[in-house]
């Protein structure tokens, strides 16, 4: 049976980017469908009735939801091409732990940076930098979180690199000066076509946030 | 059976997340040493083995630590893959679905909405209760016609939801509300009975009266704090 893959996504979603990077790393062809989240398609509502969120990967008509779960699914089905998770249980558990850390901390704290002001924003910025430093410590001297090659944690975290500029301008701080090692890691990841082809222009992400703030009625 | 080495579990007497790991270890017949932590006075062991979150549960296997209950459950399933039951299905689509429902319990609304209903009053509580009702409807639909959330056999999503069986009656008693009932939730009620019938699960429940005392105190604390700050 031919493999039919459809990805419901939006260009700016760091969660959707994870899936695109994983598929591209493995050289898997897929059809990309850009969703308008203010006017969700029938397909999205049918394939993810519970959360009505992207990304959703539809594989031969069956939906897989939640970016981390989708990436693991892709890794399991196409396990012989550019494996993202280690093969042994303990390193796999470590990779899942750190991906979970990114999931729990980065997006929500980052969001606080561009949706708040004053003291609240300052403390969100400090918290955010703290998490980036924790990630730097975990990276250590390795070129990637996955070791010598791009792995599950790299794919989970690197989309946020396209949002760094938006966070920096909103919060008036520099990620480069606080976390140079992490920035070096990000640039290393960007040398992979799967990443550079997927991540949008950071300036466009910033413009998007400005428009989103207007729409949400945030100053 | 693989040589399992030394297995230690850091948890607390009442932790629902720790309970999941207890079930997995016991069902798979893995001997382990249990350490109950006092989270108001965290042990050096906990701080050493979970420096990032300093939370329980933590599984320490041959001196190496694994943290976050769902990560631990997958680790146990992969490391002791020869020991039944399988905690995740073999088929990748079904695995993805099992992971989705496990995550749903923890993150999206299930536990947080329970927390809101429990620690607030007035309109905020009503919102929490309404949110719980929505989630229970989704769970009821998902459980229909199934023995377990994972299908024919118990698995990780059932472990993730298992707290419901033990803790909901406690919350119902404290709040004076019915949250799960036979009429609105026939499949969920039957699933709860099926879960409770499993000896390993039944014998691991924390004592109910201790739970009522603990959670009543938690609710009082949150309500008092909220009332004090609203002046």
**Could you say which structural class the secondary elements and strand pairing of chain A correspond to?**
alpha+beta
| Average pLDDT score of chain B | 90
Largest sheet of chain B: 4 strands, mixed
Assign a percent range to the helix content of chain A: 55-70%
Mean pLDDT of chain A: 96
Q: Please list the strands of the largest sheet of chain A in the order they lie side by side.
A: 2-1-3-4
Order of helices and strands of chain B: EHEHEEHHHHHHHHH
Total of DSSP H or I helical runs spanning 4+ residues of chain A: 11
Distance between the termini of chain B: 62 Å
Please tell me how large the radius of gyration of chain A is: 17 Å
Tell me the Rg of chain B in angstroms: 18 Å
Order of helices and strands of chain A: EHEHEEHHHHHHHHH
Overall form of chain A? globular
Q: How many strands, what sense, and barrel or not for the largest sheet of chain A?
A: 4 strands, mixed
Distance between the termini of chain A: 52 Å
Total beta-strand segments of chain B: 4
Residue fraction in strands of chain B: 5-15%
Structural class of chain B: alpha+beta
Low-confidence segments of chain B: none
The neighbouring-strand order within the major sheet of chain B is 2-1-3-4
Give a summary of the structure in a few sentences.
With 219 residues, chain A is an alpha+beta fold. Chain A has helices at 14-25, 42-47, 67-77, 89-115, 118-139, 152-157, 161-171, 175-178, 180-190, 193-196, 202-216, and strands at residues 5-9, 31-34, 56-59, 62-65.
Description:
With 219 residues, chain A is an alpha+beta fold. Chain A contains 11 helices and 4 strands; from the N terminus they run βαβαββααααααααα. Chain A starts with a strand and ends with a helix. In chain A, 41% of the residues are buried. With 231 residues, chain B is an alpha+beta fold. Chain B contains 11 helices and 4 strands; from the N terminus they run βαβαββααααααααα. Chain B has a 4-stranded mixed sheet with strand order 2-1-3-4, with helices on one face. In chain B, helix 8 (163-175) crosses helix 11 (208-230). Chain B: One of its GO terms (biological process) is glutathione metabolic process.
